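Help needed: design a sequence for this.
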């Protein structure tokens, strides 16, 4: 298994409570992704970020807005993954 760089959408939050609300929202709606530590390339108010596929941006943004989850930023960066 090799580690390769893959474009990923990284969503950051102003608080840990907002990050946990994102995780709950995504689980409830069946949206893919997972919580990760904030990558060094991204600045954030808390130490957690949601990582998902870049093509999920619109659906994720709509779901978080509908649930009132505050978002700091949505950034696409390349992260290492095992493939």
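Sure. Designed sequence:
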């Amino acid at each position: 298994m090799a580690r390769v760089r893959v474009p990923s959408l990284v969503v950051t939050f102003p608080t840990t409570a907002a990050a946990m609300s994102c995780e709950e929202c995504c689980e409830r709606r069946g949206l893919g992704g997972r919580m990760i530590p904030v990558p060094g390339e991204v600045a954030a108010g808390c130490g957690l970020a949601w990582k998902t596929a870049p093509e999920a941006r619109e659906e994720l943004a709509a779901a978080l807005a509908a649930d009132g989850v505050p978002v700091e930023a949505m950034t696409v960066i390349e992260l290492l993954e095992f493939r």
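The first strand starts at residue 3 and ends at 12.
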